[in-house]
Amino acid sequence: MVVHRLDRLTRNLSDFQQIIAEFNAHNVALVSVTQQLDMSHHVGRLATNILTSFAEFEREMVGQRVKEKRAATLQNGRWQGTSCPLGYRIKNDCLLVDANESAIVKELFSRYASQESVTALIRDLDERGIRNKEWKTRTGKLRGGQPFNRNAIYVLLKNRVYLGEVFFGGSWQRGAHEPIIVGALWAQVQGLLENRSRRGDTRADTDNDTIFMLKGRVFGADSRAMSPWLSSAYKGRKYAYYIPQREIAEGAGVSGLPRLQAANLNNQVWSYLRRCLADPAWLLEYLPTELTAHADFDASLVVGRLMKLEGIADLLFPVNQKALVLRLIDKVTIHPDRLVIELNLDELMELILELLVDQPDLATTYRQLYSSARSHGR
After folding, report:
1. Are residues 112 and 237 in the same domain?
2. Same domain flag for 107 and 137
């Protein structure tokens, strides 16, 4: 392993020791082009540890100085960066209130305080052509200027910069810029945000993979994934759905796609899979012709084995049903009036081969024919 300097490899002594241990385990030598170090001698190993310790110290000192400079800059009323929140503009490194934009910020806070729905806010802003903050990078490229979505609204409503505060030293502190939102309105909005969040987390629990077993495989007709979602608690119970991502960001109804109860979708997909196994002859049409047209291919045997699997489907535990679904279902596409289910042909072939475990020679022949066809893109 050749490096220009040791600190180009790492500036953490603990990491360096682990890397050296890994190198030694594989008989790999470390060479620094600009430093004469003999790692095979105890003096050389001491020197490398000292150099790495100094590199770690230097990194920490640089980080600390950057933090101190940022804190001092904000305390002096100077704003860092080329972007700033909607409602302000930057002049001479200071935040100044922008009259037009600040009116939009005040309107959003006031309308949310009056308990107007976020969906209605987003639609109104879009109809009026109001966009989020547009700014230029240091290289002159335009950023921002996008339509508001739910996330942008909530980020704006929680931004304490509008109270005249800035974040440094690990906490929000009074800044030098003029606030846009008064304390009473801010407190009212934060109270509403807190109360609504207490109704229950609506995002799906990532550990709850039984209800949302099709997570990552359900897509809308717009090619965007459908997101798992739990309703707010009603009489102590939550309801699981797959919801189009556009509706999460922009409001209900904007995608034109239905929200589906997870349990119903699971049942539909499971029923479809069982129908496929109950009458599997048509599935063979999707297998490569090199396989199905071969003299050794016994279609009746394959069909019979798949039908037997369907015959014991009711005896499978839920975890086994889920495993079979995830194995054979590749994608579920939701349209306004229908859903399209696509099978994973590679896994279907693997399942067929497993069902022929009592005929290993035949299974080997089928595997070779299938692999050959797939390698040629057929």
Report:
1. no
2. yes
3-state secondary structure of 303: helix
Residues 6+ apart with CB under 8 A from 3: 9, 30, 31, 32, 33
> Is residue 80 one of the residues assigned to a domain?
no
Percent helix, strand and coil across the chain, each to the nearest 5 = 50, 15, 35
Whether the Cβ atoms of residue 40 and residue 54 lie closer than 8 Å to each other = no
Indicate whether this model's pTM tops 0.70: no
Q: How many CB atoms lie within 10 A of CB 113?
A: 17
Domain boundary among 172, 197, 222: 197
Is the domain of 207 the same as that of 328? yes
DSSP 40-102: TSHHHHHHHHHHHHHHHHHHHHHHHHHHHHHHHHHHTTPPPSS---TTEEEETTEEEE-HHHH
Q: What is the pLDDT of residues 61-101, one digit of tens each?
A: 887 777 777 667 666 667 777 789 999 998 888 889 999 99
